[in-house]
Amino acid sequence: MTSLRMIILMLLALVLSVPVSATSTKIYVWRNADGVLVYSDSPKPGAEEVDVKESNQMSSSIDTSILDINPKVIEEKYDVEITQPAHQATIRDNTGSVYVSGRIKPVFKQGLKVKLLLDNTPYDIPQPHSMFVLRNVDRGEHQVKMELVDEKGKVIASSDPIIFYMHRASVK
Q1: Closest alpha carbon to 52 in 25, 75, 79
Q2: Which Pfam family, any one, appears in the UniProt record (predicted)?
Q3: Which domain holds residue 119?
């Protein structure tokens, strides 16, 4: 008995899931011998045509506004920051070596490179990472800045400039 109920419920669900739409078919109504109203799409003598409004349409209960078919251009915004040396730091190294490292968020995609500027002049060639070693930097105040560049050399993002002071012992 339970399986029969299951089959009946499944058939009922199938029938109810079929979409209903208003069409231009004519509907007729009349009373049978017992006085009960009978509706049919076949006319009978004495039947009256029922006026069916075409606006009876079922609409979907699913919100499809989120299904945007137009592709959106995803803007890639990068944040470039120099983490070493600290701003206004004094570097004490008689060889003039300075370690410069940075952070780029989010992780940049393949093909992009990092260019380091020392005193507004490119230092070496752009690298696929954000760690640099400057050699033989003269005494005094210097400025470093990192730029993220694409394959064509266009600057996509850049860091704020960092000022540091190189202290090298004098032989005098």
Answers
A1: 25
A2: DUF4124
A3: 79-167
How many whole angstroms separate alpha carbon 160 and alpha carbon 80?
8
Distance of CA 161 to the CA centre of its chain: 31
Q: What is the C-alpha R_g of the chain?
A: 39
* Residues 159/145, Cβ–Cβ less than 8 Å: yes
Interatomic CA distance for residues 79 and 148, integer angstroms: 9
Instruction: Kindly state whether residue 42 falls inside one of the protein's structural domains.
Output: no
CA distance 138 to 98: 11
Please state which of the ranges 12-16, 24-28, 41-45 shows the lowest mean pLDDT: 12-16
pLDDT in tens, 80-93: 899 999 999 998 98
Q: Which residues contact 164 (CB under 8 A, 6 or more apart)?
A: 85, 86, 87, 88, 89, 90, 91, 98, 141, 142, 143, 144
Number of domains in the chain: 1
At residue 5, the pLDDT reads 76
Any idea of the CA torsion for 87, 92, 95, 96, to the nearest 10 degrees?
20
Q: Is residue 58 part of a domain?
A: no
Instruction: Write out 63-129 in H/E/C secondary structure.
Output: CCCCCCCCCCCCCCCCEEEEEECCCCEEEECCCCCEEEEEEEECCCCCCCEEEEEECCEEEEEEECC
Task: Select the more confidently predicted residue: 3 or 77.
Answer: 77
